[in-house]
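Researcher: Quick test of sequence recovery. Tokens follow.
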């Protein structure tokens, strides 16, 4: 009897998916056409240029190269955004060198008003600044729902059989 209960518990626990977490992401889905990487020094200037041009861009201020490298991967791989790097240029250029297939999605700019303005205008005028929707996951609802039903069914059958056996004894 105890063996059945232990096996049922092991079966239920083995069906639970592992969760991996590595912190909060800055990169989120946004309606912006261009995502701009800035730091505390260049953030205000970049926001002012974006506001003056009236372009649909979002400025993210980062505090470390590790954070930029991590979030840049999410901007490109997860959300397929066009990126303008006003700060952390070395980190972004290293990312481009390691991932040359994404070089057309990423621009590096000096933290100067005119350079930011020119790069933003080029990105939004030639259509490369169009943000695409994140890739639709076909299993976004169906697979977790089906797994929940399966776990509930297995747990219910196991507990029901245990209860009925205990009740009839």
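Model:
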């Amino acid at each position: 009897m105890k063996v059945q209960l232990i096996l049922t518990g092991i079966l239920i626990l083995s069906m639970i998916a592992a969760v991996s977490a590595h912190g909060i992401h800055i990169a989120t889905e946004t309606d912006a056409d261009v995502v701009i990487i800035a730091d505390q020094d260049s953030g205000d200037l970049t926001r002012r240029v974006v506001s003056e041009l009236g372009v649909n861009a979002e400025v993210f201020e980062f505090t470390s190269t590790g954070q930029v490298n991590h979030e840049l991967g999410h901007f490109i791989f997860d959300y397929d955004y066009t990126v303008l790097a006003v700060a952390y240029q070395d980190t972004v250029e290293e990312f481009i060198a390691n991932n040359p297939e994404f070089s057309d999605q990423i621009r590096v700019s000096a933290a100067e008003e005119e350079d930011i303005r020119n790069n933003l205008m080029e990105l939004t005028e030639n259509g490369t600044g169009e943000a695409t929707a994140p890739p639709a996951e076909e299993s976004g609802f169906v697979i977790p729902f089906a797994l929940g039903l399966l776990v509930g069914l297995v747990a219910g059958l196991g507990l029901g059989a245990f209860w009925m056996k205990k009740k009839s004894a």
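The CA atoms of residues 38 and 50 lie 12 Å apart.
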